Amino acid sequence: PSHDIVGGTVGELLTGAKLGAADQLTSIKAIEIIATGANMRIGGTVGLNQPPDLHLNALNLTLKTSGPNIRLGGLIAQNGAILEKTKATLIAETVNIQHYGQQGMIGGLFGINERRTEATQLKALTLKAEGAQNVIGGGAGRQWATWSESQFTDVSIEVKGSQQAVGGAIGQLEPQDNNQPVALLDAPILTQLERFLILSTSSNSQLGGLVGLAKRAEIKNPQVRAITPNLVAISSQEQDTKVGGIVGETEDGKISSTGGTANLSNLLILRSEEHTSELQSLSRISYAVFCLKKK
Q1: Assign residue 92 a region: left if phi > 0, alpha if psi is -120 to 50, beta otherwise?
Q2: What distance in Å separates the CA atoms of residue 60 and residue 32, rounded to the nearest whole number?
Q3: Rounded mean pLDDT of 118-146?
Q4: Is 148 helix (H, G, I), strand (E, B) or coil?
Q5: What is the pLDDT, as a whole number, of residue 288?
Q6: Rounded-to-integer distance, Cα 35 and Cα 221, Å
Q7: DSSP 86
Q8: Per-residue pLDDT averaged across 227-231, rounded?
Q9: How confident is the model at residue 178 (pLDDT cuts 50, 70, 90)?
Q10: Is 24 exposed, middle or buried (0-12, 13-18, 19+ CB in 10 A)?
Q11: Of 181, 232, 277, 293, whose CB count within 10 A is highest?
């Protein structure tokens, strides 16, 4: 198939529609989607979303795709609505994604998120991708606007190939065009348990604890953390890769903090051209703590 829009619950949710309510979330469990093709939009619950009234609680989602130019989201493939916490609830737990292809936008919640979003929750994501020129994030493959007060817990991403932007929260954070305001990731909290955050054998790529590639963007009051003896572990095993505990590469952007809280703690970055089977043991004996303070 080509140019398909697929959702586990709704393919396309149009303006004026509602899915769930604040006091009665739409509960979605045990969905599996397998698709092969080009230019598809595939979401574990919604393929293409336009309305702001969206209340979802999803558990055990499995998505397996292959092909070029796929927008793939654990919850929503492509979101075009402002999702405020007073009108929307997005919760996803135990999301498994596998993707083979190039020029894809792949995320645990959104493939691409175009509008302002607040207070989402993601727990236990396993994402594996192989290909070239993909943007891959624990929360969203690509984010155009402000995303605030969201939590990402126990994210594990494994990538192979080349020229990929990979982040624990967002693959690529950048406004849609120069006429748009700076893209903002505000007060994100990423908490790692025992698994690695990013394991990469992708060359010429950007790997970040929160954001892989940020352009004309600000990351404000971030928290990237793990509880000792666990670590935020990022492993890169190919050449010409840019790796950072918060962002892999940033252009015309900034990281800011009001202080008082460690922005980055218990970080382990491994650089090896051999596969690292000792990641778990290393994570129990090595850690570093960083804190940004406002001038």
Answers
A1: beta
A2: 9
A3: 98
A4: strand
A5: 42
A6: 38
A7: T
A8: 88
A9: confident
A10: exposed
A11: 232
